[in-house]
Amino acid sequence: MKILIVDDQIENLELLENILTEDGYSTTLAQNGAEGVAIAKMEMPGLILMDIEMPVMNGIDAMKILKSNPLTSHIPIFACTGLVYDSNVKRLLAAGFDHFIPKPLDLREFRKTIKNIAQHRQPG
User: Fold this and answer.
1) Is 111 domain-assigned?
2) Is residue 112 included in any domain, yes or no?
3) 73-105 per-position pLDDT tens digit
4) What is the CATH number of the domain that holds 93?
5) What is the phi-psi region of residue 26: left when phi exceeds 0, alpha when psi lies from -120 to 50, beta otherwise?
6) pLDDT value at position 124?
7) Domain that residue 75 falls in
8) How many structural domains are present in the chain?
9) How far apart are CA 104 and CA 86, in angstroms?
10) pTM for the whole thing?
């Protein structure tokens, strides 16, 4: 399964890329929401991990664009952010994200979540 990682912090991109490639997934990276939208439309990943606060286009706007496009609306998009207070988690899920992954990562829980989604997706 191909996973698109969208985050403006290079350290986060590298960390997630290393974990996911170590676990056998292919990854593509984007540094803002606009770049993430463009890459998602071209590469059709099986999953998108989306940061929320980014320059150019934030993660919520990027997710809404992808979810409103019939070609990309089926792609699960996980909010991946350090803004973990309950009201924010509820707001992000209500906005249309399929799941919430808090930063910093709980590595065991993160791997379990990704493996679970990968088992229910066709290769992509």
Assistant:
1) yes
2) yes
3) 999 999 998 877 678 788 899 999 999 999 889
4) 3.40.50.2300
5) beta
6) 44
7) 31-119
8) 1
9) 16
10) 0.93
